[in-house]
Structure prediction request, 303 residues.
Amino acid sequence: MRFLEQYLFHIVRLRPFRGITFTHRTGCEGAGSQANCIMNAMTFARACGLPYVHTPLTMIAHADRPMCEWVTAWETFFNLGLGEVAYDAETLGVVNYTPEVYREIELCLGWRGRGDQLADCFKALIPELRRKYYSNKSPRTTEEVMVALHMRRGDVTVQNNSNMFTSTQKAMHTVNAVKSVLDSQQIPHTIRVYSQGNIEEFAELTSLGVEFFLDADPIWTLQELIEADVLIMAKSSFSSYAGIISSGIKIYEPADWSELAASVEFILNDPLDDWLRCEVDGTVDEVALEHQLLIRTKAKLNF
Prediction:
C-alpha cells in the first residue's frame, strides 16, 4: 500500500516523487544482491534526473559477527552512499526502488520498455561506482597475473538452486582455457579458487596447481575477486558486483534469470560489453581472451 499511496499522490501532483532509494527486500539478502539493487536504484535515479537518496543497509545475510558490525563493514566496503543524500524518514516523496515494485515505478515515470537506455545509464555510472569503492582503498599491484575463480557452493548445490550451480568439471575447462593462453604467452601467473566447502569437492582442479581459499572472510574474498587480473565469475550477485568494479578481464557464465522471478529484467542481469562469455562446455573465446590478456599484461608492466 505504501507505493500505491505514493503513486496516487504523484499522479495528482500533490506530492510528486522527489528521490529514489533502496531498502532491503522482505527477508534477508546477501551483500552482493543488495549492492546490486542499490546500484539499480542509483542508475534509475540518475536516468530520471532525481536524487538518489541513500538508505544504509540494516540487515545482510550470512553474518559472521553481530549484525550492526556486519552491515557497517559492508557499508564501508561498498561506499555506495559516499557523496549521496542520506535518507531521512521525514522526507516525503522518496520512492523505494525494489524488485517488487520497480516495474510500476518505471511505468509511472515513463521508463517502462526503455531497458536499453537504462542499461546505457548504468554503464555511464560505472566510473563513479569505482571511484566510490576506491575512495578508501588502493588498487593492488602484482608482478604476475592473478586469476580468481569464484565458485558458488554452500547454499547452491545441484539439488538446490541448480540454475546457479557450476560444476567443478566445467570450471576446470574454463581454467584450462585461461591457463593455456597464459602458458602459450609465457606469462607468469597464479590461479586461486574462492568458494566454500572441502577441498575434496574440487578434486578436478587440484591437478592444475591452483590455490584454494575456502570459507574465507567474504569481504576479503570480494576484494580479492575485484583485484584479480582475470576473474572467472560465478552466477551470483557477489560475482556481478566484483565484475562491475574490477578493471581486469571478466569471464561470465550466463544465468537462467527466467527462474529468478524477482530479478527478471532488472538492469544488472545483462553482462557488460567487455565481459567474455563462458560457453556451456566451459570453453572461452581464446582469441578474445588472448587479446585482453596482452592489453592487461602490458598495462601491468607500465604501471
Observations:
- The chain has two domains: 2-134, 145-301.
- Residues 2-134 form one domain.
- Residues 149 and 193 are 5 Å apart (CA to CA).
- The longest strand covers residues 189-195.
